Amino acid sequence: MRKLVRHLAAMAAIVLAGGLLSATLVRLAPGFGTDEQQLDARLSPESVEALRQARARARDIPGFYLHYLGRSLRGDLGESRTLNRPVRQLLAERLPVTARLVGTGLLAGWLCAVLLAVGSTMARKPACDLFATLLAGLSLSVPAAVLALLFVFANAPACLALALVVFPRVFSYTRNLLAKSYGLPHLVTAYAKGVGPLRILVWHVLPVAGTQLLAVAGISVSIALGAAIPVEALCGIPGIGQLAWQAALGRDLPLLVNLTVLVTVITLAANWGAELAGQDLGTREA
Amino acid sequence: MKRMRQFAWLFLALVLLASLGAGFWAPADYAMQFRETPNSAPSRVHLLGTDELGRDRFSRVLYGTRVSLLMAPAAALLATFLAALVGGVAGYLGGWWERAAMAVTDLFLSMPWLFLLLAVRAMLPLNVSPITSIAVTFLLLGLLGWAAAARVLCAGARDLRDSDFVLQARACGLRGPRLLAIHVIPNLKPVLAAQFWISIPVFIISEANLGILGLGVAEPLPSWGSLLRELESFASFGFEACKLVPLVLLVLVVSSFQIIIARDEVYA
Q1: Contact B86, B101 (CB under 8 A)
Q2: Residue A38: which pLDDT band, with cuts at 50, 70 and 90?
Q3: Does ipTM come in above 0.90?
Q4: How many Cβ pairs closer than 8 A exist between chain A and B?
Q5: Chain B partners of A253 at a C-beta cutoff of 8 Å?
């Protein structure tokens, strides 16, 4: 319980620091502090002055950040400059799309990586290992944006492009982990005693490797979220990755900052969730 | 594996040499337009054909390779230097320094790389000159890409700080910069080198991703990222093999780096 509280406190501290960093970015961005309303000839000089003073108050970074935090806690994430819509509404619309894409991509990537890693380790044939390594090396060397373009050209589902981004990282880690686990003395003894390969995998290898594999699960969420930007932008999927790209091109920093903070929270939650699950698994094994 | 590593080095050396001599080999300047032959097929005059603006694709690939192959190591050098400064010094000093530095590192690591790059890139002007856009893109990669390396370097410096020979050197009266210069930095060199080599392919791929999204090196200067944007036309103009040349080159170069890195991974 104490560990959980400590984790949550650390997470809150990182999110607050990330928010401050993001708010500073918004504050320092060119064009901040100017409002086209100030040029509206219909407004009286008093109204223009009031607008100017309201903007001037936002020049003080700590004050600006506290205001930003207060608003965020009330659920008001501001308005997108380019799309002229509340950021909260945009996130609510697009987050499920990205969640579906990332979820499917992660599932497919992990499935391919684990199956190939288990297959190449159990087969113990250099040709199998070489094929798997070459496949992983090739997918690692192609940028996510190119994979997305090729998948658009081939009319293939975008989640498979995301799976190909996740696959090589998970594969190389899983293969090394399994190779290490298969070399443990008690497994050599089990082999010598004639225990079947499937039984060895399920009862002896996976429980040992499981804890460390869970740590990679957390990292793979971050990799998939990063790859979602080019995949969604180039495949025309209306998720938060595409939103981030549009925000970057339109210099819509309030939107981009909220997106970065949101993705940071998701990444931290995924990493710590994986860490806690790994610890739980380790305790149960002990 | 040794033979493959030798091939990888040889290939990288050849590509680097070809790109450095772009002014000599390239049949035209990267920005020169042959307006009467846009989108032309490969010929004797244009080995890889021309792009939609009539620019010689072979020349652009040569110049683009030069940009990516020279700037990615420069960004990697900057990232490694920052990582050594933050991680190495924090690990060596320990205590609050280490905790504070690692908290900042965690903050950077918890933000997905591309989201952070987009946020900071959007803060900077988009309508900059091509040369400035190269500097901005690779400077950003170097300034934001130090966090993972800092963690590794911090662990390495911590191990050195607690090692017997450093303890003995301290007991002999060696302190401060002298201890760092004689015992710590030379022993951190393999870790620094590994981090430097690991960063190069990461930065090459990141620049390519940014370039395809229109946030990398500005036109008319070519880089692998901007050259790969031509793949977008596959959907409307159909498949053309010569447009794949930058991709093939990028994959081969990144794979060569991966093969070279495989030896250094023990330090990473």
Answers
A1: yes
A2: low
A3: no
A4: 128
A5: 119, 122-123
